[in-house]
Amino acid sequence: MGSLFETARRLLSSLWDALINAFFITAVFGNDDDSFQWIMHWMSEQPSWKGARNVEISTSNVDLLCAVEIDSDEDSSTHSRKVTYLPAVSESYTLWYKYRWMGVTRAVHPNQGGWSTRETLTLSVMTRDHGILAKILQDAKNGYIKAQEDKITIYVSNNSTDGWRELATRPKRPLNSIILDPGTAELVVEDIRDFLSSKEWYAERGIPFRRGYLLYGAPGSGKTSLIHSIAGELGLDVYIISLSRSGLDDTSLADLISDLPERCIALMEDIDAAFYHGLNRETPHASSVETSDDDLDSDRPQPTGRVSLSGLLNALDGIGAQEGRVLFATTNKYNSLDLALCRPGRMDLHIEFKLASRFQAERLFKRFYAPLPSPSASARGSESKHTTASGKRENSHVDTTEDPLIDLSESQAPPAPLSSSSPTPSPSFPPSPSSPPYPSPTATEKHEENTASSGPTYVGVVHSRRAPTLSRDQINALAAQFALAVPERQLSMASLQGFLMMYKTRPFEAVADVEAWVEKELMERRGAEKEEDEQ
Ligand SMILES: Nc1ncnc2c1ncn2[C@@H]1O[C@H](COP(=O)(O)OP(=O)(O)OP(=O)(O)O)[C@@H](O)[C@H]1O
């Protein structure tokens, strides 16, 4: 009876499998592949999925998966939080797609080592038509790309076995927010655009379809920011290759590079830092594993990577190197790089980033204090148009191409003398000899600090405080004065940005105090350089 029963069970089971194979198409998506994200996004958009009764709740990835907003009863702007529904593990779901039944199962498979897990999503569609699967994939990919339109995705690799892993999605940074010498950003963007559209040209001539850019120069001058901005502009994902990552050796580096997708930006930051002695062939101990005792005694951080220069060179243009990728490398020590690394084919375009020029300082100031265009601001602007003394609508002569952030409506107000026109006139503008050399709390902030017995005690600027709304003429005049006080090519853009951050709401005081700040910065730098020389 027992064997009869078992035979019948097996027969039924294989009949069922044969039936499934004959009438269903089954596809498995693993979370180590991009298609997993497409399908997750696609599922989250399906109307029949929204009625699922057994789901896992997630608050991450809400930007990419179709999310449900949960509001509190009171104030939705402050209390709303988005969540998304994911298929629960080991649960089967039924969906309908173009009148076809579809089963979905999500499973988690522990890795042998037990450290990381692999997830799969299995889709079984009741159809004999393979075109349906292709259509689902196409829809899923298009939907995912659309959801990512205003974002860039950053990938990293944690260890050699896991390959690339999505680290985060970031909003795109507009290219014009990076203030460089005229034409620099455009040069790189146009170069990449032209490269990406020249695949056939390379194929016909048998030249490897790869291009490398080396951005070198002063720290804090916008190298990384430009790369992220270009990624957004061209819709490319960024794959960060950290050469000093522990456990990375020549073989795993080559594997990682050959695993890159065809169109992407591979980014190696501070390429010199991975090699203790500088990236140079003349220093045979380039790899950190071969550091001398003297080096180990020094205070400098010990790099942990085990990549050698020849390993890097092979990974960049060996036979396994991915075609179609755009490589960006950044360094602050251009001269310490080996010539072989810098040669065309590996790094085709070398772009120098200098310390801030007056031109850059001026633009940075303008961007920093330009009011954000908002519906309420334009409403205010149109109100002010009606209340001008002449009662006429004045024609704007402002150059809108210069900086889109500057609010045109505000600029139409007649220019007023700087010292009296600010809605919150600053006591320290124009600069007086007695103004404090370094940022000090404004009159209101001091007041807040001193009378704090009844409230919180703090020093600094509360985030909700806003800079006074300045007209275009005011901003231009202040920016020109600010730039005049900044010495040509002496300070980085990052440090200028840091200074302006301290004066987030006080443009007049920023201009008044910048000279003293510059002096202090330069003195500190000279001191640090002297110390370094003495060592
Ligand atoms: N040219 C610039 N225009 C606008 N902002 C800039 C510029 N340069 C630097 N910044 C600002 O300074 C900060 C640091 O910039 P970033 O990391 O791009 O510099 P970096 O050159 O890559 O520095 P490092 O060589 O130290 O990595 C960022 O917040 C960025 O917004």
TrEMBL record:
Species classification: Eukaryota, Fungi, Dikarya, Basidiomycota, Agaricomycotina
Biased composition range(s): Basic and acidic residues: 382-400
Protein name stated in the entry: BCS1 N terminal-domain-containing protein
Domain AAA+ ATPase: 209-357
Recorded topology in the membrane: Single-pass membrane protein
Keywords (A to Z) from UniProt: ATP-binding, Hydrolase, Membrane, Mitochondrion, Mitochondrion inner membrane, Nucleotide-binding, Transmembrane, Transmembrane helix
Compositionally biased intervals (Pro residues): 424-440
Domain BCS1 N-terminal: 2-178
Coiled coil (residue ranges): none
Annotated region described as Disordered, given as residue ranges: 285-304, 372-459
Major subcellular site: mitochondrion
Low complexity biased stretches: 409-423
Homology family: Belongs to the AAA ATPase family. BCS1 subfamily.
Cellular component per GO, a single term: mitochondrial inner membrane
Taxonomy, superkingdom: Eukaryota
PANTHER family per the UniProt record, alphabetical: BCS1 AAA-TYPE ATPASE
Cross-referenced PROSITE patterns: AAA (PS00674)
Entry's Gene Ontology molecular function annotations: ATP binding; ATP hydrolysis activity
Compartments, as annotated in UniProt: Mitochondrion inner membrane
Catalytic activity field: ATP + H2O = ADP + phosphate + H(+)
